[in-house]
């Protein structure tokens, strides 16, 4: 009787583990059933995520979501963008309100280990900085001693700000707001001497100010801010899809595969291109997609370089240099995991 009871108990435990594993792999099936990808987004970050007056979303993070939808549905329009604040973004992902969070969020250890999240890829390497009015005559962040600084609550930005001033034995007056939009409004109204956030966010915020040429972004970078999409912990298949969507765009840029030539490149004899475009191997099937998954991404959205340039690059309104977001072959940090 004891042996039977132990065996029965073990069977129940194993069944529970199997059920948990099965439910953890459910995101792709759910997305396919809905017929649309729900993407947690930033409503007020030009170049990264923002809708226009007609409700059309554009941005680097927006294009990542469109690329995921293209890989799954062969249609980049099958995305529902859900605007989220810094305070509610992770809760929305944890609760299943969104399938993926692509909202300039910094990957950190605590978010990975304590919030039940994973950051499968880094699609923008950033760092925190400061913006001030030129009229202040400030050329360095170390000249902000005793000044007031606008920031948004509940973010790594707020923590980094405190760390920087403490490490440099400086004092400051924090002026905190519920989100970056309110912080920017306060800065423009003159309620603080400086505004701090990720440098990419400062470039975006400066665009929307009434006198953008009157603002200067100081040279100091005070933190590491690896920004990327987040998914729920435990769904390895879904994490792989999000990760390799970004990797496909990186590898396409490195191999010279573009939105314009991707169909032509299908006939390439280059084994790396053949594997990427699905004419050799079954790499797409391994993650629950079709073998032309990368072709779908590139023909609808483009490679990483194309996405970067049109949204935030030197040909865009933000005019950001590639810098550390250049490919590894050009001195940057973006390095595509091989498809093989």
UniProtKB/TrEMBL annotation:
It comes from the Bacteria. CDD domains: PBP2_BztA. InterPro entries: Bact_solute-bind_prot3, SBP_3_CS, Solute-binding_3/MltF_N. Gene3D superfamilies: Periplasmic binding protein-like II (3.40.190.10). One of its GO terms (biological process) is amino acid transport. Keywords: Signal, Transport. PROSITE patterns: SBP_BACTERIAL_3. The keyword Transport applies. Residues 1-24 form the signal peptide. Residues 36-265 form the Solute-binding protein family 3/N-terminal domain. The keyword Signal applies. Belongs to the bacterial solute-binding protein 3 family. PANTHER family: AMINO ACID ABC TRANSPORTER PERMEASE, AMINO-ACID ABC TRANSPORTER-BINDING PROTEIN YHDW-RELATED. This is Amino acid ABC transporter substrate-binding protein.
